[in-house]
Amino acid sequence: MAVKLPIYMDYHATTPVDPRVVEAMLPYFTEHFGNAASRNHPFGWEAEEAVDTARKQVADLIGANAKEIVFTSGATESDNLAIKGVAEMYREKGNHIITCVTEHKAVIDTCKRLEKEGYRVTYLPVQKDGLISLDDLRNAITDKTILMSIMTANNEIGVIQPIAEIGAIAKEKGILFHTDAVQAVGKVPFNVNDLKVDLAAMSAHKMYGPKGVGALYVRRRNPRVLLSPIIDGGGHERGMRSGTLNVPGIVGFGKAAELCRLEMEADTKHLSGLRDLLNERLQKGLDEIYINGSTEHRLPHNLNISFAYVEGESLLMGINDVAVSSGSACTSASLEPSYVLKALGAGDDLAHSSIRFGLGRWSTAEEVDYVANKLINVVTRLREMSPLYELAKEGVDLSTMQWEVH
Ligand SMILES: *Cc1c(COP(=O)(O)O)cnc(C)c1O
Fold first, then answer.
1. Is this structure's pTM higher than 0.70?
2. Which residue among 81, 97, 120, 162 is the one 20 to 30 A from 48 at the CA level?
C-alpha cells in the first residue's frame, strides 16, 4: 500500500488537533460564545463551567488540584510567568537561578533577560547522554538561590531529566522548582506531587490540542507559590494572568488532556514500537550513525540520529517528502548547529547532519518503512560521493590528517 506524502514526523514541533478535540471546541465559537468572566448571565456561566471542566481535565492529567492551573497563551508564556514571576516575587530572598544549557529558548532567553536586570543565572552543563549531573546541581546552589528551572523532556533529543531527584533536592534546600514539561506531559506519566514540582509549563498544541493555549501549574500547598504577574489587567486567573480567557482553546486543551490521560498507555506502546522499528531499520541499513542522547531516559516517540559523512543540507534535500527537523537552526545569516547537540559534545558536522524524528498518534508502520528506506538510500548515495567516508572506510584516522588551508 502506498503511503500518503509528505509524511509528518515532526510531532515535537507541533501536533495536529485530534478530531475529538475539534468537536468538543466547536460549540464554544458560536452557540456558547460567552465571556467566562461575565458573572451575571447564563452566557458567562456556560463559558465558566466549560473552563472549570477543562481546568479539572488538565489538573487530572498531572495529579494537581484544578485551582493550581493557570491558563496562558502557551508554554512560552508559562515559562516566562514562572521564572519572571518567581524572580520578582522572591527578590528579597535572593537573586540566583539555576537552569541548564539544553533548555528551550523560552527558558534560556527569559533567564538572559533576568541577568540584564541583575539576577545571577547558573547554566548547568549536560553529560554526554544529555542529562544534568545531580552533583553539579547541588554544587551550584547558594544561599541566594530562589529557583531551579530544569526541563522534564528535551524537545530535540527527547531525554528525560531526573525530575524526582531534582524535586527532592529542591525541597531539601527550600528552593522553588519549575519544570518546562511541554514535551513530557500527556506522553509519559507526570505527577506534580510524586515529582515534587512547584511549577510546570504545558502547551496544548504539543499534545493534540489547539495552538495558542497552554497552562502553568502553580503549587498552592507545601509550599504555596506566589507569582508576580507579567500581564496586568482584569485580574483573571487569580490575578496571575489577566486577559479574557480563550474559551474554545481551553475547552480543546482540556479534552486533549483527557484523551492523553486515557490513551497514554496505548499511545506509548504504539509509538515506542514504531520508534524502535525505525531505529532498527536504520542501524541495520547504515553504519556510522549515532543516536544523540540517552536511549534509556527518553520519550517513547523520539529518535535523534547523526548521520556521519553526509552533509546536512543534502541529507534534508534528499528526504524532502518527509517532514522532520534537522540539527541546524536557521539564524539570520547562517545555519548554526543545534546548541543542544553541541552541549552533548557533538562536533559541528555531526550536529548539522542530525535528524530529529518525532512520531505521533497517527504515525504508521508503513510510514516508518518508507522513511527508513528513503534514508538508507539517500545516505548511501551521498556517502558514495564522499571522499571522507572512503578514507574512513580505508582506516585512515581523519582526526590526525593534516589539512591544507588556502
Ligand atoms: C514548544 C515548546 C515550548 C513553547 O511552547 P509554545 O506553546 O509553542 O509557546 C516550550 N518548551 C518546550 C520544551 C517546547 O517544546
1. yes
2. 81
Number of domains in the chain: 2
CA atoms 19, 24, 29, 30: torsion sign: positive
State which ligand 1 atom lies nearest to the alpha carbon of 203. 7
Q: How far is CA 184 from the centre of its chain?
A: 7
- Is residue 111 part of the annotated active site? The answer reads no
Residue whose C-alpha cell reads 504504539 in the numeric block:
270
If you search the block for the grid coordinates 538572559, which residue do you land on?
112
- Residue 385: count other Cβ atoms within 10 Å of its Cβ: 11
Q: Rounded to the nearest whole angstrom, what is the distance from the C-alpha of residue 75 to the centroid of ligand 1? A: 5
Nearest CA among 59, 15, 75, 54 for reference residue 201: 75
pLDDT tens digit string along 22-61?
999 999 999 999 999 999 999 999 999 999 999 999 999 9
Collect all residues with Cβ–Cβ distance below 8 Å to 375 and sequence separation of at least 6: 282, 285, 286, 307, 319, 355
For the chain, give the number of residues. Answer: 406
34 assigned to some structural domain: yes
Is position 386 within any domain?
yes
